[in-house]
């Protein structure tokens, strides 16, 4: 029997919830990846081993609200670099910069503390999933407003049919994802 790749192993632990939060949506639930200590370690190690490489190593990891906090904080800890949260508007107590982006119905705003990164910092931007790419692109723009360079966007899951990963790449963001749910 052929051993599973890391990608296939992780895929087996992502739960698909049909018709949530709306009819016709196949929701990709990553919480089973976090519940099992072995699976969680495989997941985190997949990111850590990539970003230990000197050419890809960030100065700081930025995580997108909210599941990007879970991944980003652990990856930053393992890489021995700082972690900064990019939050939904109104959640950060200090001076912030903000970026508004379009959603399917309306818009949303994310914020970052003005002292979260320094000009010239190399930042890894991380979230759980790339759908339309709006949140990750807004995070990239926020970090760039403060003079940082986003070296890569990372996520567990890519949903390429929603066009986000293509839009992000066209917007100049290199991406690294572990599980692709194209055509599923």
From TrEMBL:
Its EC number is 2.4.2.7. Keywords: Cytoplasm, Glycosyltransferase, Purine salvage, Transferase. It is an enzyme of class 2 (transferase). It catalyses: AMP + diphosphate = 5-phospho-alpha-D-ribose 1-diphosphate + adenine. GO terms for cellular component: cytoplasm. Gene3D superfamilies: 3.40.50.2020. One of its GO terms (biological process) is purine ribonucleoside salvage. It is found in: Cytoplasm. It comes from the Bacteria. SUPFAM superfamilies: PRTase-like (SSF53271). Its main location: cytoplasm. CDD domains: PRTases_typeI. Pathway: Purine metabolism; AMP biosynthesis via salvage pathway; AMP from adenine: step 1/1. GO terms for molecular function: adenine binding; adenine phosphoribosyltransferase activity; AMP binding. It holds the Pfam family Pribosyltran. Belongs to the purine/pyrimidine phosphoribosyltransferase family. Homodimer. PANTHER family: ADENINE PHOSPHORIBOSYLTRANSFERASE. Catalyzes a salvage reaction resulting in the formation of AMP, that is energically less costly than de novo synthesis. This is Adenine phosphoribosyltransferase. The lineage of its organism: Bacteria, Pseudomonadati, Pseudomonadota, Betaproteobacteria, Burkholderiales. The gene is apt.
């Amino acid at each position: 029997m052929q051993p599973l790749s890391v990608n296939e192993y992780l895929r087996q632990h992502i739960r698909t919830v049909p018709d949530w939060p709306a009819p016709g949506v196949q929701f990709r639930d990553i919480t089973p990846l976090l519940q099992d200590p072995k699976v969680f370690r495989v997941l985190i190690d997949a990111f850590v081993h990539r970003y230990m490489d000197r050419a890809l190593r960030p100065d700081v990891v930025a995580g997108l609200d909210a599941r990007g906090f879970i991944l980003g904080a652990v990856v930053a800890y393992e890489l021995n670099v700082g972690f900064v949260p990019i939050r939904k508007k109104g959640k950060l107590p200090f001076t912030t910069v903000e970026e508004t982006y379009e959603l399917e119905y309306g818009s949303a705003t994310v914020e970052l503390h003005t002292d979260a990164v320094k000009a010239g910092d190399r930042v890894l931007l991380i979230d759980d999933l790339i759908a339309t790419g709006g949140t990750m692109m807004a995070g990239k723009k926020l970090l760039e407003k403060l003079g940082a360079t986003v070296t890569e966007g990372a996520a567990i899951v890519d949903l390429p049919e929603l066009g986000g990963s293509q839009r992000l790449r066209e917007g100049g963001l290199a991406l690294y994802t572990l599980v692709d749910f194209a055509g599923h």
